[in-house]
Write a structure and sequence with these properties.
The complex is a heterodimer of chains A (394) and B (277).
Chain A (H helix, E strand, L loop, with lengths): L3 H12 L5 H8 L5 E5 L6 H6 L2 E5 L23 H10 L8 E5 L3 H12 L5 E5 L7 H23 L5 H27 L6 H10 L5 H17 L8 E6 L8 H9 L2 E6 L19 H12 L13 H11 L4 E7 L3 H16 L3 E7 L7 H16 L9
Parallel strand pairs in A: 1-2, 1-3, 3-4, 5-6, 5-7, 7-8
Helix pairs in contact in A: 1-8, 6-11, 7-9, 8-10, 10-14, 12-13
Chain B lengths: L4 E8 L3 E9 L3 E10 L5 H15 L7 E8 L9 E2 L2 H12 L5 E5 L4 E6 L5 E6 L8 H10 L4 H9 L12 H13 L4 H23 L5 E4 L6 H13 L6 E2 L7 H22 L1
Parallel strand pairs in B: 1-4, 4-5, 6-9, 9-10
Antiparallel strand pairs in B: 1-2, 2-3, 6-7, 7-8
Classes of the chains: A alpha/beta (394), B alpha/beta (277).
């Protein structure tokens, strides 16, 4: 039987395979199959799956792709991820992809969609506006029409007809994927010494580039193996990491935080995989409506969502409490306006509630972690040692 | 009833490993300390061997140790219970070895860090040298090797200097070229070594000035064992009228491990108290 280390190694290889080998192999294994790349944060992959496609997460080149031409497309004050993505596109890594979806995050991503269009990548490129009006008859209707447009575009490529049964099946598979993902995250929250945050990250990220059926099998195996694992708990503080919902941190950064005396028990890495909170109705005559309903009523919080009725700072505090955190680390990508504009609001909530935090910036190709290690290490020490009474220590 | 507990602090540096076995109750007592050069060996392996060696020597089992804490680059030690950052441990070790110290200067192999501390050993502020190797113990060691001196001889040799010759001090590479020139110009070894010590001491003084350090200042780490280095820092502090008393301890190299072992005891008691409530 595959060991936990072997499973994690396999997932790491899949997750960081910039040639998307498994996705392309899957496409070649059947007639009418299409690959549709999607950027962060969230896209309902059920839509592509039901249309006989594979939604492939495009999360940038990270620290594994040298930027040569990508810098010519963006000014120096723009974040790193789009440079990596355009570099990948120019080098042919997305050859064989039929479509590209750009969920609305910021102007940089919108511009990236324009570049893909000019470069004539794939058969369709869509910048997808997500509703900011959360009333079903306004934002919901708009969102539904956007999703149906994507289904139509895929149908024009592979002639697969819209089918309620197929949509319900897809919803069921992704419901299962979310349940397993939550179970895996909860296991880590309970016993973070059994599997590191970086290992968990690789397992979840692998799900962005392989068929959901295969990822569900991986998650089931993972849960079984983590349950059986023993491990020795160490004296570390429990932290929530916030800010890395779009451009992803390098794996070494996640490892650095944990090595510096912290267990990451809550995070917004790969936020799309846990965007919908709970199941989507999977036995319905209007499956797209069910997907819309889940987005409107059961989305998590994010810097890209207008949330006047349910402010993100309260939801962050709820998560912090649930995860039994000791502190929060605000880790935002350099030049990420959505994350950085939110940090004062979130940090003010921390101040008011006596929650300790630190903040730093990173980029997906950061290679020097000395300063971050120093910050995270002293943060951990300050909570472990200097929290409370020190009398008697002289 | 004996409330004493045993703790171990393991400090993995870039060139050596230091370990301290401590017994704490109302008093803190050092039961043992060991120091081992890494010599390109796997740090985790050497640390494990040292732990076993100390446990065997004192007829102890691993389970007898209430808390084994690592510091420095010791995050990889699997047998640790917790890891403390080196600034935290040097601060504590420094004031414990030199009671009354208000500033601790950790002079390690790769950089120098000045830390302002309160009476409990809590870090209040700090300044450290940048990436340049010319402010580090490794640099001093390299120069000594070029000059054919053993590390143990460096301090006494420096004290023999009558007319120190300062290198460029801008970077280690340029300074090493300066040293070659000095040798060819017939400058004596004590004067070259003293010049190197003064060059590093200048960086220490800059850190202390920008930190607005308070006296006494305790030097810790490998370089604090070097009499010539301590003398150079003292001379420059006096020359600059900083009004700082420079102090050190014969076991200054163990300050990080010592601090880790003390914090380990404190943390253990804190965790025990939390369990009870």
């Amino acid at each position: 039987m595959e060991s936990l280390n072997q499973l994690i190694k396999k997932c790491e290889e899949l997750a960081f395979d910039l040639d998307f080998t498994r996705a392309k192999q899957w496409k070649s294994e059947g007639e009418g199959r299409v690959l549709v790349g999607h950027m962060p944060i969230y896209f309902p992959r059920e839509i592509v799956h039901a249309m006989n496609g594979l939604a492939v997460g495009i999360l940038g080149g990270g620290d594994k792709k040298q930027i040569i031409r990508g810098d010519a497309y963006y000014q120096s004050y723009i974040c790193h991820m789009p440079r990596g993505i355009i570099e990948l596109a120019l080098d042919g890594h997305f050859d064989g992809f039929e479509g590209f979806l750009f969920p609305s995050i910021c102007d940089v991503i919108r511009n990236l969609s324009g570049m893909f269009r000019i470069l004539k990548k794939g058969k369709f490129v869509k910048y997808m506006d997500f509703p900011q009006n959360f009333q079903k008859h306004i934002g919901g209707e708009f969102y539904k029409s956007e999703l149906m447009e994507i289904a139509d575009k895929i149908s024009q490529i592979n002639q697969v007809e819209f089918s309620v049964e197929r949509f319900n099946e897809s919803i069921q598979l992704f419901n299962k994927n979310r349940q397993l993902t939550n179970t895996a995250y909860n296991l880590r929250k309970e016993a973070p010494w059994k599997i590191s945050a970086a290992e968990m990250y690789s397992v979840i990220r692998a799900g962005y580039v392989i068929p959901v059926e295969e990822h569900n099998e991986i998650l089931e195996k993972l849960i079984e193996l983590v349950n059986a694992a023993e491990g020795v708990p160490q004296d570390k503080i429990r932290v929530q990491v916030i800010g890395a919902f779009c451009e992803q941190p390098p794996l070494s950064l996640i490892r650095t935080i944990e090595l510096a005396g912290c267990y990451i028990v809550e995070d917004d890495f790969l936020l799309g995989s846990k965007w919908i909170q709970g199941d989507i109705e999977a036995d319905t005559s209007d499956p797209v409506g069910a997907i819309v309903d889940a987005y409107i009523n059961h989305s998590t919080f994010s810097s890209t969502v207008y949330d006047v009725d349910d402010p993100k700072e309260y939801r962050m505090l709820e998560l912090f409490k649930e995860s039994k955190g000791d502190g929060i680390i605000f880790a935002a990508p350099s030049f990420c306006d959505p994350a950085l504009l939110d940090h004062p609001i979130l940090q003010s909530a921390c101040d008011k509630n006596g929650i300790r935090y630190i903040s730093f910036l990173f980029s997906e190709n950061t290679g020097q972690f000395k300063v971050i290690k120093e910050q995270a290490g002293t943060f951990s020490d300050s909570i472990k040692l200097w929290d409370g009474d020190m009398v008697g220590l002289k | 009833m004996d409330n004493s507990i045993l703790t171990i602090g393991v400090d993995i540096g870039s060139s050596s490993i230091k370990m301290v076995l401590l017994e704490s109750n109302s008093e803190i007592k050092v039961l043992d300390h060991v120091h081992e050069k890494l010599r390109k060996r796997n740090p985790e392996l050497v640390a494990n061997q040292l732990i076993d060696y100390v446990l065997d020597k004192h007829s102890l089992k691993y389970e007898d140790i209430a808390y084994l804490a690592s510091t420095g680059e010791g995050e990889s030690i699997k047998r640790k219970r917790g890891h403390f950052y080196s600034m935290t441990t040097h601060a504590k070790g420094g004031i414990s070895q030199n009671p009354g110290a208000k500033t601790v200067v950790d002079m390690g192999a790769l950089f120098v860090r000045a830390i302002k501390v309160n009476e409990f050993g809590k870090v209040m502020d700090y300044k450290m040298t940048g990436q340049c190797a010319s402010g580090s113990g490794q640099f001093v060691e390299n120069i000594s090797r070029y000059l054919g001196l053993a590390v143990e001889e460096v301090g006494d040799t420096s004290l023999l200097s009558t007319k120190p010759e300062m290198p460029s001090g801008i970077c280690a590479v340029l300074a090493e070229t300066d040293v070659i020139n000095m040798v060819s110009r017939g400058i004596s070894t004590p004067d070259i070594i003293k010049g190197i010590h003064l060059s590093v001491a200048q960086k220490v003084i800059k850190l202390l000035t920008s930190l607005r350090a308070e006296s006494p200042v305790a030097l810790t780490g490998g370089m604090a064992m070097n009499k010539g280095m301590v003398q150079a820092v003292t001379e420059l502090a006096d020359k600059g009228n900083l009004n700082l008393e420079i102090v050190t301890h014969p076991d200054a190299i163990f300050a990080g491990a010592y601090g880790a072992a003390i914090w380990a005891g404190f943390r253990h008691k804190k965790l025990e108290a939390a369990m009870q409530t």
